[in-house]
Amino acid sequence: MFSPWWRQLLEGCPRATDADVCRRRLRMTPAALAVSLPALGSVLYMPLAESGAGLPQQPDGVLVETPRLAPLLRVHWLSAVCEVAPDGPREWIDGIDRDGRPCVRLHLLPDTDYLGWDRLLASGEPLPATAPAPAPHVRVLDACLLRFRRRRLAGFDLLCGEAVTRLSPLSRQLAARIARAHAGQGDRQFR
């Protein structure tokens, strides 16, 4: 007996495949990242499991307000990723440390400033295309809705992250789905 055509489609598409994922790599210093992040507005910020070398000895003119933001100081390049997921398109940026390991992830949300996102990606220096590497499994330490602010303090750029209190229901739902997918756990709510 033949199965309905839609069942065959669903069986073949349980999640996105590598063909549905677009990646590009950009050179980005923590100082350039600190300048660009405030233009994004609301994002889902995910520090990833500790890996590779520690924080730089010289902060390159950038400090962070809290330890939660410290992974941003380890960024040497960005990996911008677009994916077609079962529930629609998703876009995020992985901050990669000098050892090639992801240290932080920022997810684009419907409330994110798309022009700020594009300016951030345009400010990075494109790296030559190499053979596509499989996306490494990342362990998310936390997931929070943040808005970045930058201010000057004693000759340094101080990068601050403030919790987002006003966000559309669509962004909250998407952030919760993304956080659940990374955590592999039940209900995660962002209020």
Summary keywords:
about 20% helix, alpha+beta, disordered N terminus, about 190 residues, Heme iron utilization protein-like fold
Q: Which band does the percent of strand residues land in? A: 25-35%
For the record, what CATH class applies? Alpha Beta
CATH architect. name? 3-Layer(aba) Sandwich
The run of helices and strands is HEHEEEEEHEEEH
Q: How many individual domains? A: 1
Rounded radius of gyration (Å): 18 Å
Structural class: alpha+beta
Mean pLDDT: 79
Concise summary:
By secondary structure, the chain is an alpha+beta fold.
Layout: helices, strands, pairs:
Blueprint: H1 5-12, E1 21-27, H2 30-36, E2 42-47, E3 62-64, E4 77-85, E5 88-96, E6 102-107, H3 114-123, E7 125-126, E8 144-153, E9 156-163, H4 169-183
Parallel strand pairs: 3-9
Antiparallel strand pairs: 1-4, 1-7, 2-6, 2-8, 4-5, 5-6, 8-9
Task: Explain this structure.
- Mean pLDDT is 79; it is low at 1-18.
- The chain has a single domain (19-183), classed as Heme iron utilization protein-like fold (3-Layer(aba) Sandwich).
- It has helices at 5-12, 30-36, 114-123, 169-183, and strands spanning 21-27, 42-47, 62-64, 77-85, 88-96, 102-107, 125-126, 144-153, 156-163.
- The relative contact order is 0.22.
- 21% of the residues lie in helices and 31% in strands.
- It has 191 residues and is of the alpha+beta class.
- The chain is built from four helices and nine strands.
- The protein is globular.
- A nine-stranded mixed beta sheet has the order 3-9-8-2-6-5-4-1-7, with helices on one face.
